[in-house]
């Protein structure tokens, strides 16, 4: 039963509106995907949206933590440890050759994958135990973080492996993961939702930067309509509608996020030059007539 605090009861024939939750069931896959329509009600009513509805991608909270959040944390961790490793190797290498050139990130990854951290430190002659231990950890963490994810290996698993190599204990790791879904600590790019209509899973995250479009002919009012219409893999269908306070909050957060994006001075100056050139061209063609 729908929680009317979060969702509005609607019939299968109710016209689409902002805040409608839509779902895609890829053929041959057990993992659905979701979205929430953000096209304004007035644009839908006046058919100003053309052939497309605009929606934001919604991911399960589990998927968000395991892939999105963990992937972002992994990138930051990898960058920090690569920098430590590259600077440390360069500093040690300069003792042997004052003109030594620092490694690139790709150089470090290839060397570490081929020979391992111990061989690298032996090759450049690092003998100080404290420095050796620090650089060895940095190289190994950078190598772990660079591994590719797959169906069997998530970003979260790689992140936890990096944390363990850093010496971070299990309770500290668990605390960091819990904070990933703390609304007060989540980045403004994301919005946590407790549930979606017609879904048993608990916890979903709206990806406020992941804006997509779907043709009106590929969007059905219900699962039954999709079956009757013989919808293919690209089609989606409505599973419910958020209450006003939730749909307005999503739209407001998205607007706030994008309102903070400013243009560079170079872009603005180039735009001004382009405008002046166009105006000169218009004036010239008008004078010739």
The largest sheet, given as strand count, sense and whether it forms a barrel, is: 8 strands, mixed
Whole-number radius of gyration?
26 Å
Termini separation: 71 Å
Query: Uncertain runs with pLDDT below 50, 5 residues or more?
Result: none
Number of helices: 10
Give helix % range.
40-55%
Proportion in β-strands: 15-25%
Shape: extended
Describe the structure.
The chain has 289 residues and is an alpha+beta fold. The protein has one domain (10-263). It has ten helices and eight strands. It has helices spanning 41-45, 61-96, 105-115, 117-123, 129-145, 155-166, 170-179, 223-228, 244-259, 265-288, and strands at 7-8, 20-24, 33-37, 52-60, 190-193, 204-215, 219-220, 236-242. Strands 1, 2, 3, 4, 5, 6, 7 and 8 form an eight-stranded mixed beta sheet that branches. Helix 8 links the parallel strand 7 (219-220) and strand 8 (236-242). Helix 2 (61-96) packs across helix 6 (155-166), helix 3 (105-115) crosses helix 5 (129-145) and helix 5 runs antiparallel to helix 6. The mean pLDDT is 90.
């Amino acid at each position: 039963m729908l929680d009317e605090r979060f969702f509005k009861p609607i019939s299968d024939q109710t016209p689409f509106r902002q805040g409608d939750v839509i779902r895609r069931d890829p053929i041959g896959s057990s993992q659905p995907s979701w979205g929430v329509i953000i096209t304004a009600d007035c644009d839908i009513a006046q058919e100003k949206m053309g052939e497309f509805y605009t929606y934001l991608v919604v991911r399960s909270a589990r998927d968000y933590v395991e892939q999105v959040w963990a992937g972002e944390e992994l990138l930051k961790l990898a960058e920090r440890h690569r920098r430590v490793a590259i600077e440390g190797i360069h500093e040690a290498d300069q003792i042997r050759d004052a003109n030594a050139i620092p490694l690139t990130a790709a150089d470090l990854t290839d060397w570490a994958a081929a020979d391992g951290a111990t061989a690298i430190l032996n090759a450049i002659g690092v003998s100080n135990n404290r420095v050796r231990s620090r650089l060895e950890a940095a190289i190994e963490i950078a190598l772990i973080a660079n591994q590719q994810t797959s169906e069997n290996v998530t970003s979260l698993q790689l992140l936890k492996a990096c944390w363990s190599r850093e010496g971070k204990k299990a309770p500290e790791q668990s605390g960091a993961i819990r904070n990933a879904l703390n609304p007060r600590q989540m980045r403004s790019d994301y919005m946590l939702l407790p549930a979606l209509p017609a879904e048993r899973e608990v916890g979903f995250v709206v990806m406020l930067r992941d804006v997509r479009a779907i043709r009106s002919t590929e969007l059905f009012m219900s699962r039954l309509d999709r079956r009757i219409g013989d919808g293919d893999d690209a089609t989606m269908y409505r599973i419910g509608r958020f209450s006003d306070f939730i749909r307005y909050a999503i739209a407001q957060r998205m607007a706030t996020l994008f309102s903070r994006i400013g243009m560079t001075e170079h872009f603005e100056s180039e735009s001004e030059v382009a405008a002046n050139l166009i105006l000169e061209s218009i004036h010239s063609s008008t004078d010739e007539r």
